[in-house]
Amino acid sequence: MAIIQRQYLHYVIAAAADLLVALLGRFVFASNLFHNAGGLLMLCFLLLIPMALGAATAHFTPATATKTWRLVVGPIVTVMLFLTTALLFQLEGMICGLLISPLFLLTSWLGAFLYTTLTKGRSNDQNTYVVAGFALLPFLLAPAESLFTTPDDYRRVTNTIVIQASTAVVWQHIIRVPPIQAQDLGTSLVDNIGFPRPVEATLSHEGIGGVRRATFERGVEFIETVDVWEPQRQLSFSIVPNTATIPPTTFDEHVTVGGRFFDVLRGTYELEPAGPGRTRLILYSQQRLSTRLNPYAGLWTDFVMSEIQRRILTVIRQRCETQAVTPLS
């Protein structure tokens, strides 16, 4: 008795062919050959490899399959098979897997649609040439893409909160942030995908030139040098990751803060009176994003930074309002 029934054999072949194409692309683009050009963040990998994956799915799917399977369900299965394999064998981290999965799904659907359109009414031999073209295209165009410089995109993420406390109280809670417990922060998607939680922020001395050390879980630390000090009005500082304290396993290369693809440059707190005994606290940060797909990557980095800042502001509000109700003796 056959292990795999004959009517399902084509589906297994389709999945195996897709996985082979995706893994081959992963290893080629992650090699030294394309490292300086961006590697796995090259457009030829992020866009053309999943398109080839979708085309291969449509090619090997039996003619008896429904259009929905060929164009939608099949590509979903093969993309998830590749991402699961990459995670299981630690080829990629959870963060990267989550970030590229929507892009891979969309472009794999596009690849399946284009293949189906291009091969309509053609012979099987002609179809083979078409799917081979999809599979080879990423590797043929990659040398040309590597000639172009990766653009830098400087972004700003702003969060605002209103606190039932005076600016004097709020000021004391932003220049230094005592240790934060996990329950103070609540739950967030950024925890589930592996970003470390903020722990505390210390200050060497008050005034311009003071050094804040902002620490996060798993040994992540940022050195923040104060260059704007306006008591009860504004605190601003440059940010440099302390790479000596960050274990190499904390972040994947593609999302490492201070790496060639992403960096956090500055942070600023602004305090504004918002009525009697109320303060509007604004926190914004400036980041550098250097990928070939900055608009898409920026959606993710903006979300992560906004979540981190929102949670910090929430902790500050809770502490300030507790102090405002029960002043410290």
Notes on the structure:
The longest helix has 32 residues, at 294-325. The protein starts with 5 loop residues before the first helix and ends with a helix. The radius of gyration is 25 Å and the shape is elongated. It is an alpha+beta fold. Helix 3 runs antiparallel to helix 4 and helix 6 (167-175) packs across helix 9 (294-325). It has two domains: 6-145, no CATH class; 153-325, Alpha-D-Glucose-1,6-Bisphosphate, Chain A, domain 4 (2-Layer Sandwich). It has helices spanning 6-29, 43-60, 67-88, 94-118, 124-145, 167-175, 182-185, 189-192, 294-325, and strands at residues 153-163, 198-203, 211-216, 221-230, 234-241, 262-273, 279-289. The protein is built from nine helices and seven strands; from the N terminus they run H-H-H-H-H-E-H-H-H-E-E-E-E-E-E-H. The protein has a seven-stranded antiparallel β-sheet, with helices on one face. A hairpin with a 3-residue loop joins strand 4 and strand 5 (234-241). Keywords: Membrane, Transmembrane, Transmembrane helix. This is SRPBCC family protein.
What is the fold named in CATH at topology level of the largest domain?
Alpha-D-Glucose-1,6-Bisphosphate, Chain A, domain 4
The helix/strand class is alpha+beta
- pLDDT averaged over residues: 90
The largest sheet is: 7 strands, antiparallel
Q: Which bin fits the share of residues in helices?
A: 40-55%
CATH-wise, what's the superfamily of the largest domain? Answer: START domain
Note the quaternary state here.
Answer: single chain
* Rg estimate, integer Å: 25 Å
Low-confidence runs of at least 5 consecutive residues: none
Estimate nothing, just give the exact number of structural domains. Answer: 2
Widest β-sheet, arrangement of strands: 1-7-6-5-4-3-2
CATH class (first level) name of the largest domain: Alpha Beta
Principal-axes geometry comes out as elongated
β-strand number:
7
Query: Element order, helices and strands?
Result: HHHHHEHHHEEEEEEH
